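Q: Hi! First time doing this. I have a protein sequence and I read that you can turn it into a structure. Is that right? Here it is:
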Amino acid sequence: MTPADPAGGQYDGSVDERVDVSVLVIGAGAAGARTAIELAEEGVDDVLVLGKRGHGDAHTTWARGGINGALGTHDPEDSWAIHAADTLNEGHSLNDPQKVETVTRQMPERLRELDEWGMEFSRTEDGEIDQRYFGAQSFRRTAFAGDHTGESMLNTLVERAQALEVPYRENVMITRLLSDGESAHGAVGFDMDTGESVLFNAGAVVLAAGGYAAIYNRHTSRDDENNGDGPALAYEAGAELMDTEFVQFHPTGMAVDEDDPEWAPWSGRLVTEAVRGEGGRLYNTEGERFMERYSPDQMELDARDVVARAIAKEVAEGRGTDNGGVYLDLSHKDRAFIEERLPRMYERFQELGVDMAEQAVEVAPTAHYGMGGVAVDEHGETSVDDLYAIGETMAGVHGANRLGGNSLAETVAFGVVAGQRIADRVDGSGDLPGGFVGSVVEPHVSDLKALADRDGEHDVMAVFTEIQSVMWEHAGILRDEETLQMGLDRLADLREQARDMDVGPITSDSFEYAVDIGFMLTVAETVLRGALKRTESRGAHYRTDYTETEANWRRNIYYARADLGRMRSYTRGIGEPSTEVQAALDENHELDYHQLE
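A: Yes, that's right. Below is the predicted 3D structure, encoded as C-alpha cells:
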C-alpha cells in the first residue's frame, strides 16, 4: 500500500492511499467470502476483501432459517430439477432459468463442502445433514444449523478464507466505482476509522454488497446495511439494474409497541420462517387460524407473498393486534423441541419476557429481500467488463418472489461461478486509464471532503427515515398508480433536501448515512418506476388496480443511465427452462403441509 500516484493525471495529494490488487471484492458476507475462497483455490493470490464492518459482522448472520439443496436426507425423491421448478414457480416464471439451474445443480455439492469445512449443521439421528420444510418447497430441502444458519455459515467461510490467507480489510466504505462505462478499473472509498481516502486499482471488481430492503422503514436488516449500496454503485458505473420493483415482504417480522423502549428496536426484525417450518401457526385476534381461508392446502407454508398479503388483509379488516400484527403460535410444541430447533428465537423472546413454549408472539410483514438488483450474465459479470455482482446485489435467480432458503444458496453458488470466471481472465491489477485520477478520482474525493462537516438545513436522519417512510407508504405490499406516482413526487422533493443536509465529520455516523442516502435515492427511484410500469400483479408486486397476472408481462424491466443523469427503462423477454426442469414443472410437485400436523 503506497501513497496515490498520478497514474496519468495531475496528482495534488488529495487521495491519501492507493492499493493495487488483481481482484477487489466489495462486501465480506457469504457471497464475498465464497468468491475470495474460490479465487484463492484457483491460485489468484492477489485478492482483497473489503468489509464495511468488523470481520465476520455481515448481514449473512441474520439469515437464520436455512440453506436449500436437494440432498434428499428425508425425501430421496427430491432432485436439483425439482428444486429449480419450485424456484421458478415461486418466482412466477420471471426468473432467469439458466441462473436458477446454476444454483440448484450446485447446491448438494456446496452443502457437502460446507460440511467438510466444519459447518455445524443440525443432524438427523443417523448423523446426516438434517433438512426442514420451508414455504413453497415440495420437499424437505432446507439444511440448517438450528435457527442461526447464516451465522454458522459465515463463520465457516471466514475460517476457510483465513486458512487460505485471503487478505481482508475492515471498516472501509466504497463510495464510487472506477469505470469508463465500458470497463471497471477499481473503486474509491474511505477508511471509516481514520477518514482517509483510499483508491483501489483492480483488474476485476466484485460487488457483494447486499441488497436494498432497508430503503423501507419496516425491514429485517440493520439500518446501516442493505441500503442499496451495491446496485447503486453498479448503476453509477454504467451497469444496468433489473426487476427492482420486486421486494419481498417477509410475513413474519416482529410487531411491537414502538413506544416501548425495550421493544421498539426490534420492530420489523425477522422471526425466521423456520418457526413456521417447525409447525408454527398463525392466528388473528378472534382466535381463527386464518390461513385456512387463504391457503387450505399449504397453510402457513404457502409462498411468502401469499402469507404476507393474508396477514395484511387480516389487519386491514380489523382482526389484527394493537401493534398491527397477528399471532404466531408454537406453544403446541414441547419446550425441549423449541429450544433445540429454534434456540436463537427462543432466547430472543425469553429475554424480552415472552416464553414461546407458552405464549404466541406478534408478527407482521416486513421488507426482507430485494429480488432485483444488478443485471449480470451467466458468470455474474455485468455489462461493464470486469465488474461482477453476486449474492443479493445481483438479479435473475429469484424472479418475482424468492423461495425461502435460496438466498444463502445463491451466495455460495455464484461465488464459485464468478470466482472461476475471474480466475480464468484476470491478469494483475491493470492500469487506470490516463488522466483517470485527475479527472475522476480526485474530484470525487474532493466532493466527499466537501460533504463532511457541511452546514445545511435538513437533518441527515430525518431525510434518511423519510425515504424509508415514502417507500413503505407508496411502494409497499399493496400498490396502485396514484400512490406510486405520489411516491415519485415525494422522492424528488427528498432528492432536493439531500443536497442541503447538515452533515458531521467523515468518521461520523451522520456522514455514512449521508452517503447511504445517495444510494437509497437511486434504488428507490427504480423500485417506484418499475412498480408503476408493471401494470399487473405478479409475486411480491401487487397492484390493486391491476390485480391479474398478464402473460405479456413475463418480461424483466431494466434500468440504465441516460444523458444528463436521467434514468431510462426497457423490457426484455425471458428464456425457457431446460428439458429436465420443464419435466419437473410438468410433474407439478407441491408441498403437503398436513404432513406436519
